[in-house]
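step=encode ok
step=design start
structure_in=
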C-alpha cells in the first residue's frame, strides 16, 4: 500500500467516525435532557434548542480562525485538535449532571469544528492533479454523508439497549482511538513543487473579500438552509399524506433518502465536474433541486414525495463538493484551509437560518409554502450562476 493511499484511508476514517459521532446522539438529546438530566417539561424545549444551536453558533465564528492556524501550523495538528476537543466534549456530556452542563459540553463541541476544512486541504495537498483531487473530494463528501446517516441508526440501537449516557461513553472512547491514530500514524504532507512559498499566505480578510469565495458562500448558505427548512414541518407534512401510525419514524426515513442519494451521487458529480467544469455542476444541481422542491409543493402521494426527496438529494449533494473543488483550484495550498473553513462557516449559517425561515413561513403562509420558498431561493442561485457562466463565455470570446 503506497503512502498516499494509506493517508487517504486514515482521512476517510476520520471523516466517517467524526461525522457519525456528530449525529450519534443528536436525535436523542431531548430524551437525555428529560430522563437523565432531569429537565422539567416547561424548560425542555428551551434546553433542547440551546443544545442544538450553541454548537452551530460557535462553529460559525471559530472555524475561520482554526483554518488560519491550520494553514500556518499544519493540517495534522488541526485534525488532532478536532479529535481531542471532541473527546473532551463527549466526556463532559457523559459526565453531565444537569441540562446546563450539557449545554456547556455542546458549546465545547463547537470549538471542535474544522475537521472537514482540514481534511479537504489535506486531500488537496496530496496531489497536483486537479482531476484526481476533485474526485477524492467527492469521496470525502460521500463518506461524510454516509457517517451522518449511519450515526442516528447506530446511536438509536445503542440508546435503546444501553441508554443515551452509555452512547456518549461509546463515542468518546471511539474518538479517543481516532485521536491516538492521528498522532501516531498520520503524517503532514511534504511540500511539493506546486505549493506556494510561505510569503504567499493571505490574511483571513483577503479570503473573505475574494469574489469567488463570496459567491460560493452564498450558494452554500442557500444549500444548507433549504435542506434544513423542511425539518420543522416534515413530520406533520408526512402525517397528512399517510395513515401510517409512526409519522416521526417515517419522516426520519424520508429525510434520510436525500442523504442516501448524496452518498451515491457525490462521486459521480465530481467526475462530471472534472470533465465539464464545476460551475456547470453547480448550475445543474441547483436547477434540479429547485424543480424537485417545486414539485413537492402540491404533492399528495407519499410515494411520489419519497421519490422527489430522493431526486432532491441527488441534486443538492453536488453543491458542497463542487464549491470545495472550485476553491481547491482557485486558492493556493498555503491558504486552502482558511478558505474551506469560510465555506464551512457558511454551511453552519445555513443550518441555523433554514429552521428559522421555515418557522416564520409556516406561521404566516402554511407548510406547503416552505417548498415554494425554498425552490425560489434555489432558482435565484441558479439564475446568478447562469449569468456568471454567460459572462465567462463572453469574456473568452472577446479574448
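sequence_out=
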Amino acid at each position: 500500500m503506497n503512502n498516499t493511499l494509506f493517508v487517504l484511508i486514515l482521512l476517510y476514517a476520520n471523516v466517517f467516525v467524526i461525522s457519525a459521532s456528530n449525529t450519534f446522539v443528536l436525535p436523542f438529546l431531548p430524551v437525555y435532557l428529560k430522563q437523565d438530566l432531569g429537565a422539567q417539561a416547561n424548560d425542555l424545549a428551551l434546553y433542547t434548542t440551546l443544545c442544538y444551536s450553541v454548537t452551530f453558533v460557535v462553529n460559525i465564528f471559530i472555524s475561520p480562525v482554526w483554518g488560519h492556524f491550520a494553514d500556518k501550523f499544519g493540517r495534522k495538528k488541526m485534525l488532532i485538535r478536532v479529535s481531542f476537543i471532541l473527546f473532551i466534549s463527549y466526556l463532559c456530556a457523559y459526565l453531565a449532571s444537569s441540562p446546563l452542563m450539557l449545554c456547556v459540553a455542546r458549546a465545547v463541541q463547537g470549538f471542535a469544528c474544522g475537521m472537514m476544512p482540514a481534511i479537504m486541504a489535506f486531500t488537496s495537498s496530496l496531489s497536483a492533479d486537479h482531476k484526481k483531487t476533485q474526485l477524492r473530494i467527492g469521496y470525502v463528501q460521500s463518506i461524510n454523508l454516509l457517517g451522518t446517516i449511519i450515526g442516528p441508526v447506530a446511536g438509536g440501537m445503542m440508546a435503546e439497549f444501553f441508554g443515551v449516557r452509555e452512547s456518549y461513553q461509546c463515542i468518546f472512547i471511539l474518538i479517543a482511538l481516532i485521536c491516538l491514530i492521528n498522532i501516531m500514524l498520520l503524517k503532514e504532507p511534504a511540500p511539493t513543487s506546486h505549493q506556494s512559498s510561505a510569503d504567499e499566505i493571505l490574511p483571513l480578510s483577503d479570503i473573505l473579500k475574494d469574489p469567488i469565495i463570496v459567491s460560493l458562500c452564498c450558494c452554500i448558505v442557500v444549500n444548507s438552509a433549504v435542506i434544513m427548512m423542511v425539518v420543522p414541518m416534515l413530520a406533520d407534512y408526512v402525517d397528512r399524506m399517510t395513515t401510517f401510525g409512526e409519522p416521526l419514524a417515517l419522516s426520519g426515513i424520508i429525510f434520510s433518502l436525500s442523504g442516501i442519494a448524496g452518498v451515491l451521487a457525490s462521486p459521480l458529480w465530481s467526475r462530471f465536474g472534472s470533465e465539464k467544469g464545476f460551475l456547470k455542476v453547480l448550475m445543474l444541481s441547483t436547477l434540479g433541486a429547485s424543480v424537485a422542491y417545486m414539485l413537492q409543493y402540491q404533492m399528495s402521494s407519499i410515494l411520489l414525495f419519497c421519490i422527489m426527496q430522493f431526486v432532491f438529494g441527488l441534486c443538492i449533494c453536488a453543491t458542497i463538493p463542487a464549491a470545495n473543488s472550485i476553491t481547491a483550484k482557485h486558492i493556493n495550498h498555503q491558504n486552502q484551509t482558511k478558505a474551506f473553513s469560510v465555506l464551512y462557516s457558511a454551511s453552519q449559517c445555513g443550518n441555523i437560518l433554514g429552521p428559522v425561515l421555515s418557522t416564520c413561513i409556516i406561521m404566516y403562509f402554511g407548510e406547503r409554502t416552505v417548498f415554494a420558498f425554498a425552490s425560489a431561493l434555489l432558482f435565484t442561485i441558479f439564475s446568478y450562476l447562469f449569468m456568471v457562466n454567460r459572462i465567462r463565455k463572453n469574456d473568452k470570446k472577446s479574448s
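step=design ok
step=annotate ok -> The domain at 1-186 is CATH 1.20.1250.20 (Growth Hormone; Chain: A;).
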